[in-house]
Design brief:
single chain, 428 residues, alpha/beta, seven-stranded parallel beta sheet, six-stranded parallel beta sheet, 15 helices, 17% strand, globular, Glyco_trans_1, GDP-mannose-dependent alpha-(1-2)-phosphatidylinositol mannosyltransferase, Glyco_trans_4, transferase, glycosyltransferase activity
């Protein structure tokens, strides 16, 4: 049988159709977890990228923004779990409305990629029923064995147990869409029920190893950040979190500092983070934030001439701080690991990490860092002193941290894997 004859014009059109991929991203805080993959996809001028989100000032070249606003605030109810659930439904409704406007203007995506956490994707298949969906599943909540019952200093009241379970309402509706999912770590995948895991792809996030790299000369020159100058002759201990709060071990770290500073007069401490609360409860006794609560608790025992609260810093300064660090502290409850842990490994920081499930996935004790109790200030101090005292150990941890990042956290490897998953999902 003779092969069918295809006109040159038709062949050219089909080739162009294959190259012109239409992506729809959805996340209330543009660009969210999708910064690197959007930049990667945007390098191909044939790709069309549209992003639905709430209003913010961020912008990325070659990405078209579509903004949504929820129609109203959730109603005030006596059941606390209903507020978050209703807000998720309102977001889903607002996103679907924005998507219908897009569709009316002639845009139908080849694939939809978004975050399930805020409910925004729950109605999107009503608008685009034939478009495959790749949704980000971040965390499935539990009343035991994870974050909410981890710290005995903050016991979970019995009447809040239903509220924790209710936080999974959006998760369960998202899983019921029976679409494709993704998550970045084994720990996060295993928070989900065993029956749900087959639909969730593990896509390990990477970092830019060219930007996040060791600087052998960093300790030889002064470093100025937000008015503080860190001198070369001082040892520098660093702590970084989006916000300073117990979920990231801030209370334990602060309680470790008086002994650390007393035993090592050559040490200065740099603390980066805001004063809001991202996770967990607010401080009591009328304190506006956890920083002031811990400062009041420690009273005059903390040397504030060598403890520097830098607030939030620019990304380039943050990288310079980690490059200068003699010991970097990363603590967390059994919860989602921060990007700063990956970046600290890539920079080759000697790390003291909490001996919790999400951190053990990244750090092997004694090889790529030291693991210690997230809730024991004396143990944290001991591990920091061990790194500061033992130069051979510090150099070993630094080298191995960088090697671990090169082996498992390469941004290009991550993006190539991500793109393959997208292709499989969208059947390009």
């Amino acid at each position: 049988m003779n092969a069918p004859v295809i006109s040159q014009n038709r062949l050219q059109a089909e080739t162009q159709d294959e190259q012109n991929v239409r992506f729809l991203f959805i996340h209330q805080n543009f660009p969210g977890q999708f910064l690197h993959i959007i930049r990667h996809l945007g390098r191909n001028p044939e790709n069309e990228i549209v992003f639905i989100s709430e209003v913010n000032e961020s912008a990325i070249e070659n990405v078209r923004r579509v903004l949504y606003r929820i129609a109203r605030a959730p109603e005030v109810r006596s059941m606390p779990g209903l507020h978050e659930y209703e807000l998720g439904l309102l977001r889903a409704e607002a996103v679907a409305r924005a998507a219908r406007n897009l569709k009316a203007l002639g845009f139908t995506p080849d694939v939809i990629i978004g975050h399930h956490g805020w409910g925004e994707l729950l109605d999107i298949k009503d608008v685009y029923p034939n478009t495959p969906l790749l949704g980000y599943f971040e965390f499935f909540y539990h009343t035991k064995g994870y974050d909410v019952d981890f710290d005995p200093e903050f016991p979970l009241e019995a009447d809040l147990l239903p509220v924790v379970r209710q936080k999974n309402a959006v998760n369960l509706l998202a899983l019921n869409l029976n679409e494709h999912g993704q998550t970045p770590t084994d720990f996060q995948l295993k928070t989900y029920p065993s029956w749900a895991r087959p639909q969730i792809n593990l896509i390990r996030e990477g970092v830019n190893l060219k930007h996040c790299r060791p600087d052998p000369n960093a300790a030889r020159r002064p470093l100025e950040i937000n008015g503080h100058i860190f001198a070369p002759e001082k040892k520098l201990v660093t702590y970084v979190a989006r916000n300073l709060e117990p979920y990231r071990g801030f209370h334990s770290f602060m309680r470790a500092l008086p002994r650390l500073l007393a035993e090592r007069p050559d040490v200065e401490v740099a603390i980066v983070g805001g004063d809001s609360v991202s996770y967990g409860r607010l401080p009591g006794k009328g304190f506006p934030n956890w920083r002031e609560a811990l400062l009041a608790e420690l009273g005059g025992r903390l040397d504030l001439t060598r403890t520097h609260f830098l607030g939030q810093v620019t990304y380039p300064l943050y990288l310079k701080l980690l490059q200068r660090s003699d010991a970097h502290i990363y603590l967390t409850y059994p919860f989602v690991a921060s990007w700063s842990l990956r970046e600290a490994l890539a920079i080759g920081c000697p790390i003291v990490g909490s001996d919790t499930q999400p951190v053990r996935e990244f750090i092997k004790n004694g090889e790529t860092g030291l693991l210690t109790s997230c809730l024991d200030p004396d143990a944290i101090t001991g591990s920091i002193l061990q790194i500061l005292t033992d130069r051979e150990l510090s150099n070993k941890l630094s080298r191995n941290a960088r090697r671990e990042a090169e082996a498992h956290l390469d941004l290009d490897v991550y993006l190539n894997h991500y793109e393959r998953i997208i292709s499989d999902v969208a059947r390009f």
